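Here is one chain, start to finish.
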Amino acid sequence: MTKRIFVSGIGTEIGKTFCSAIIVEALKADYWKPVQAGELDQLDSDFVRRAISNTITTIHPEQFLLTKPMSPHAAAKIDGIELKITDFKVPVTANNLVIEGAGGLMVPINEKGDFIVDLIPQIADEVILISKNYLGSINHTLLSIELLKQRSIPIKGIIFNGDPNPKTEAIILTTTGIKCLGKIPMMDQELKGFVREQAELLRFN
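Its structure:
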């Protein structure tokens, strides 16, 4: 049975796109970024395309391309667009689909009170949360997991990205009971080779 897996971070600049590429490579899944805000000359989908090696993945086009690198609600307003949860159309595929979010769970989609966390149940089956070790990351990670649990959104697991901090990772995993799918170190080799290597180390079972 195929799954629609939503990749969210505990904040911005966490490495969602990088980790999404590794997840895509591990599952040979399709990839979709519903909203790209800013950097339209360097799309996240183009990065994923460059990073993966398998020939099965389909990179689906973004549904909303917003010109400014801002929160989706603000970028959409500048572009004269109102994003509505009901407007999001998941690509049709017989493959697993990795869906990359924008920022964290409480990023607003519009000015009517809809957030990324409200969108997830409409377009995905489960969430992989990306965490990164920095001062405050325990709080941000635990709050994100608590919100997902409150909304009864299934959490497939967590991936720690970047420099390791065993004590931080241990308290997050012990407190939440969430499965650690992998720990991605700093990249130390050519992109495709690193993504392929890390994909083989992810633990989905």
